[in-house]
Design brief:
- By secondary structure, this protein is mainly α.
- The chain folds into two domains: 3-344, no CATH class; 351-452.
- The protein is built from 19 helices and five strands.
- A three-stranded antiparallel beta sheet has the order 3-5-4. A two-stranded parallel sheet has the order 1-2.
Length: 455
Amino acid sequence: MNEVQYRRLSLFLTITAAFFSVGFLHPDEQYYAIDFSAFKLGMLSELKSWEYDTQLRPWSLPFIFMPFLKLFDLLKMDPFQMSFALRLISALFSFMALNVFIKQARKGFSQIGGTALFYALHFGFIFKLMMVRTNSENWATGLFLIAFTYALRKNLVWTSFFAGLSFLVRHQLGLMVLPLGLYFLIVERTKIKQWVLQFCFPMVIVIGAGFLIDSWGYGELSFSPWNYLYQNIILGKVNTFGEHPLYYYLYKGVSKTLPWFLLMILGWIYYGLHKRRDLAFWSVTLFIITHHLIAHKELRFLYPVAPLLVYMGIKCLDEKGLLQKRWVKALWGLNIVILPFVLFKPAYTPLKFYKFIYNQDFKEINVVKDAHNRYPSLEMNFYKRKGLKLIQKDESLEQIQGLVFTTKYQEFKVLKNRENCTILYTSYPQWLFRFNYFNWLKRSNIWALSQCGPI
């Protein structure tokens, strides 16, 4: 197969991942991007979100999604088809951005190095996993890769335009956009007048457009970059979501993204030692250091630097003549083994439960308190039919009648053993329950719907 055929294969695998990667890796994909759009279109009656109340989320990504959601609604698509279509759109955009970047970036490599970069970015499992996400990390990464491509071409205007868009989609990208601009001023020694006119002025226009979009989205004058800075940094709300040690990204990177994490670390260290004045090193370093210093950490936060770090890692291997080494091929083989799991695994299994109850068009479902004294809930209103009610009951599971929703195996087990209860749905196949080795079921979240008593 030649590269054209491999590119087509990559596109096919990307579409495959979009189809099977049902749900989200993080709720922001749903509660921010999709729910904001649906609420503005009147497809959701309310939006309960502290990010909405504090106006810290940019409206740029929901603004992009809105025309598509409106079209899907006119076509009478159900919410599950809509979410798949948005994953597909996100995937196609990311695929396009990746190809634009590869075409330009490989010019600085040897033939074998350029080929390695092509295969790494097209078939690396972390990229296939993230390219189909409807979150701001994915879209901002694609926009910044386009900006970086124009930066390699020394085109300041389009660099500024797409870098500004990446900042509008995800404000943390400012930590990459700022060094990108300073690189031209300090390293490239661009004249001040040219820098202001060609980089700063387009950036101001793009950010101004973001201010207008935010104000439209929230219904009043609003500037989400400032709101984000004030709420998360000045008031420190970001740390209320959990604090993590300095080595968190190292631990998570090794446990979740091998072999790519090793390549990324290698690339960053190599550039730090030998290529500190390179555009790629300038673009990623402030972003990486700052995210390590912030107490609340999530691995997805670092995704925007992943393509550039892989680019830097392969550049290191290329210049050192190591791409043909057996250990490099072994790491690539590990990626190929992991890739199918990424392509076919649902991102959020409980969404299948939502689809089941949506298709059955139930009107009332009963819930009782679990072992933690909490009622199970269905918070994703986008995937529920209007009129569905969860009825909180004080009865015991041994006595309750009607449709019963449980999320823990211990509660499900009680209903499973009742003579007059029929199991309608479980998030795990029931044959799997026979293999309760080390009592793993007791620690499992198993979403189930049971019909107890007469229908």
